[in-house]
Amino acid sequence: MNRSLLTAVVAFAATGILACGGDTPTESTEGAATPAAPPAAQPEAAPKADGAPAADPYRVQAEALVAAIDEGKSADEVLKLADELTHTGLSMLPAMVEQYPVCKGYLDAITAVGKTLRDLPIEEIESGYHQDGKLPKMPSAECYHGKDLVVHPATVSALAKAGLSTDEERRSAKGEIVEVLGHLTAIEPTDAGAK
Q1: Quick one: pLDDT band at residue 189, thresholds 50, 70, 90?
Q2: Is 47 inside a domain boundary?
Q3: Count: domains in the chain
Q4: What radius of gyration do the chain's Cα atoms show?
Q5: What is the pLDDT of residues 88-123, one digit of tens each?
Q6: Does any domain span residue 99?
Q7: By residue range, what is the domain housing residue 86?
Q8: b/e burial code for range 153-183 (CB count within 10 A of at least 16 → b)
Q9: Which end of the chain is more exposed for a tag (fewer CB within 10 A), N or C?
Q10: In the chain, helix, strand, coil percent, each to 5?
């Protein structure tokens, strides 16, 4: 993915974060809609020395989710963070479809179920969406990376809804996010390609 697409994806994702927090536009005195303030809890990327973002919102949220799991945060707290990450992943898909039009049908299928994946049994998420049993044929590897930006955090949401009561469940949840960070790296520009 080139730098301009990543910038577009990050910008698009950042605008989607507003909706994730439940904020809605408010009416101004003139009757025109004005956006609500972003939620205070949303992390922002710090710029690197060269001016490029050090981390995009998805990466920052994913790392916060891993930290919450490691710190033994409650299942409710993990669920909230995983739902926010799922939402951010969903908000990134339109830019990916624009860059890779061949992925449209595949990523549209994920968009259609993304908000409800967390309500499925873990086994159904695994067979239907991790293993693509309920998805159209994947036309390109880029499509796979986009799908996993949604499916992995939704899996953590499902695990959190079930309670995250054992060390094994917490390791599994953490593994989902560690894996998705690998997919995120695959679509980020390399330092050589970004300059």
Answers
A1: low
A2: no
A3: 1
A4: 17
A5: 999 999 999 999 999 999 999 999 999 999 999 999
A6: yes
A7: 3-21+54-188
A8: bbbbbbbbbeebeeeebbebbbebbeebeeb
A9: C
A10: 65, 5, 30
Cα–Cα distance for residue pair 70/68, rounded to 1 Å: 5
pLDDT in tens, 140-150: 888 999 999 99
In the numeric block, the tokens 């969406």 are attached to 129
With a cut of 60, say whether residue 21 has pLDDT above it: no
The reported pTM is 0.72
- Could you give phi then psi for residue 140, rounded to 5 degrees? -160, 150
Cβ-based neighbours of 43, under 8 Å, separated by 6 or more: 57, 60, 61, 64
CB 12 within 8 A of CB 91: yes
Find where tokens 């695959």 sit. 186
Ordered alpha helix ranges (H), 74-166: 75-99, 104-113, 122-125, 141-161
Q: Is 160 inside any structural domain?
A: yes
Establish if 95 belongs to a structural domain: yes
